[in-house]
Design goal:
Elements lengths: L1 H17 L4 H23 L4 H8 L3 H29 L1 H19 L5 H19 L2 H9 L5 H53 L17 E2 L5 E3 L4 H4 L5 H5 L2 H22 L1 H6 L5 H28 L2 H21 L2 H17 L1 H12 L4 H29 L4 H20 L7 H12 L1
Antiparallel strand pairs: 1-2
Helix pairs in contact: 2-7, 2-8, 4-5, 4-6, 4-7, 4-17, 5-6, 5-7, 5-8, 7-8, 7-17, 8-13, 8-16, 11-17, 11-18, 13-15, 13-16, 14-15, 14-16, 14-18
């Protein structure tokens, strides 16, 4: 008995030693670095290749849009599978596999000489790697390590995505201008592949894998130091829905509607952002500066709005954020010169900035245990929208002198997104959950 108590006290001392710098923050750091360069290059930065690749291969706007749309379609198919695998086996193996696949795919893509090779490599190989390693997998990894400090942790990660958009776009622009798009893509893929290896070595899927608790909390013990509740604070501070329970709530479907409309319209605009800005008379270097500024403004916005989302109403933040995005689109269409462009970029930066609030809402409403799976379920639907919206914009541009019809469509879609988020109130778990918790506590 004495030996058991001494062993338990040693475990407590180990918790105290590790709590000086909670390992979860290392997860945030390495996830943010990989997200900044990996997600920043493939999601936010790749539209910089839109015009160079289109011109080199002689592709129409619609066919080039199809490349991006098919990549999103892959995410819709692969997202639920990846989410289930992450929840079951952890994020670490998925990050290693996906990061190497995405990086290697980009290197091979640099040698693509035909349209269908481009489709297969980007919409197939690279996108499968991105879905497996980046985006939802990194968010799920960070989400597993925090409950009380979740807003700070996830906001930091989402901020890194915006930082990637800001800095990577400029780096890609410099590369394309000096060594061409092929060499730039090759070096980007090589860097992502090499970066994946140390990140996967540091990554741990869950705090429980290391004998830790979320937020670095110590386990609950009695006066003799005997472990009584390894879950500590989790019961009263977090509610965890099963997938079936989440899908049965009205709030899940309202959030899903908000996500579909937000990401579909935003993705279409970002895919076509360089040709859109060129119609305002901006050259590629100036357009790159504006796009980088958009993501640069989104850096503090994602962090501050994410923190605010943990303290204030996520619904109101999302409503007003999407409304400002719609105002920016109207300003771009109605206000001539640089003033309209600036308001457009500010509106988009706000829409990009509230992304962290969106996913914090999902985690706050439904818990961390099935977070990746729920994101995967959502991806089936919102990637369908992300498939259609860029194609619609491409058709508009091929058949009209500009993008006005597409942008006039996206403005009310932003408003619809804000309304859907505003109506999504926080759900409560079924009564049987609380009855089971009470029985466990009495036991």
């Amino acid at each position: 008995m004495i030996g058991i108590v001494m062993s338990t006290k040693e475990n407590r001392n180990e918790f105290k030693r590790q709590s000086r710098f909670f390992y979860g923050w290392w997860i945030v750091i390495v996830s943010s670095i990989l997200g900044m360069f990996g997600n920043g290059s493939i999601s936010n930065g790749f539209p910089r290749f839109f015009e160079p690749i289109r011109a080199d291969l002689g592709i129409s706007y619609f066919r080039m849009s199809l490349v991006f749309s098919l990549a999103r379609a892959e995410g819709g198919v692969g997202g639920p599978v990846v989410g289930w695998l992450v929840d079951k086996y952890g994020a670490r193996p998925m990050i290693l596999f996906g990061g190497l696949l995405a990086g290697g795919g980009l290197m091979v893509l640099s040698q693509a000489r035909t349209y269908w090779a481009l489709v297969f490599l980007f919409a197939g190989v690279v996108s499968i790697g991105k879905t497996a390693a980046l985006g939802q997998t990194l968010m799920a990894a960070v989400n597993q390590w925090f409950i009380r400090r979740k807003a700070l942790a996830l906001s930091t990660l989402m901020t890194s995505f915006a930082a990637g958009g800001a800095f990577v776009v400029l780096l890609l622009d410099i590369g394309i201008s000096n060594i061409g798009w092929r060499s730039t893509i090759f070096l980007t893929g090589l860097f992502i592949a090499l970066l994946t290896i140390p990140v996967s070595l540091v990554m741990r899927s869950r705090p429980e894998d290391m004998g830790l608790l979320p937020d670095g909390d110590e386990p609950a013990t009695d006066v003799n130091g005997v472990l009584t509740s390894p879950g500590g604070h989790q019961g009263p501070t977090e509610q965890n829905f099963t997938v079936k329970e989440a899908l049965s709530t009205r709030s899940f479907w309202l959030i899903l509607m908000g996500v579909i409309t937000r990401v579909s319209a935003t993705n279409a605009i970002i895919v076509h952002i360089f040709p859109i800005l060129s119609l305002k008379g901006l050259d590629e270097r100036t357009a790159s500066t504006y796009v980088a500024a958009m993501f640069l403004m989104a850096i503090p916005l994602r962090f501050l709005l994410g923190i605010a989302g943990g303290k204030f109403s996520s619904r109101k933040l999302l409503f007003w954020g999407m409304t400002l995005g719609a105002v920016g689109i109207v300003a771009f269409l109605r206000i001539p010169g640089s003033a309209g462009v600036v308001l457009f970029i500010i509106g988009l930066s706000v829409v990009e900035g509230i992304t962290s609030v969106n996913w914090l809402m999902v985690s706050e409403y439904f818990g961390r245990r099935r977070f990746a799976t729920l994101m995967g379920v959502m991806s089936v639907f919102h990637n369908l929208g992300m498939f259609i919206a860029p194609l619609f914009a491409g058709l508009v541009r091929d058949n009209t002198p500009n993008y006005d019809i597409a942008l006039l469509t996206f403005a009310p879609i932003f408003i619809l997104s804000g309304l859907a988020f505003a109506l999504a109130s926080k759900p409560k778990l079924p009564d049987k959950y609380y009855a089971e918790k009470s029985e466990v506590g009495n036991y």
